Description:
The protein has 306 residues and is mainly α.
Amino acid sequence: MKQRVAAARWFLLPMMAALAVVAGWPLMRSIWFSFTDASLTDLYGAEFIGFGNYLRWSVIESTGAVRYRGLLVDPAWWNAVWNTLRFAVVSVSLEAVFGMIVALVLNANFRGRGLVRAAILIPWAIPTIVSARMWGWMLNDQFGIINDMLFNLGLISTKIAWAANPETAMTAVLIVDIWKTTPFMALLILAGLQMIPRDIYEAAEIDGVHPIKQFFRITLPLVRPALMVAIIFRLLDALRIFDLIYVLTPNSAATKTMSVLARENLFDFDNFAYGSAMSTLLFLIIAILTVLYIWLGRVRFDGGDR
Length: 306
């Protein structure tokens, strides 16, 4: 056993070294830049300014009032935090429900099941940029097929600019994300469903247990470990969502997330230090939420419960 543990450590060493180079070092540099006055034109000449990018204050001599500045009192940042959390909670919740339904269908025995399983993965296989551009055309208010269908069915009286209207922009983003990533959630849940022994269902049917009770008493408890892992994977993706929103609803305050806002400050506005502070807080928020989810949900990655 000691030899196996030692061999496992040696096999893990190259992977850990690669992670340290491509992930650990950039993360540490980003955290460091958040405490400096760095800019894109002078990264190596940056000077340490402490927590000035996060919070600083000054006193107005004429009135004696205190003026606070920095990321922690930036309305744009907190709007991005709210947009990100709202998007993550709604999208992951709906994807879990729809993914469970799709997985239950795919787990049943019917003719052509293999073809359906392959076809259901097509939305997930399409690159996000392509999906965003495709749905952008479909949701267009002038020539989009979605507006045309709803208008012809009498569900809307005027065509809607789904991605451009602040009231519907988040809905448009959620529709595209749920359409694209529900198959991924269904795939992970399906793997958990196929691990459940069929004997349990046969015994329940002999005892006369209703299919709905079978789902809540047998299927859901046994598939819970796979479901919890699937949710955490999707939650991590949703909290750092960037490409879909950047392409589908650019420059929209109603959908701007933490990643989009950080990218704008890092490169578009040349507020590199301020953008690094946003990236650091984004990392901390994701880490805290992930730890809380694992702790409160009693998630184990070996397929069991605590």
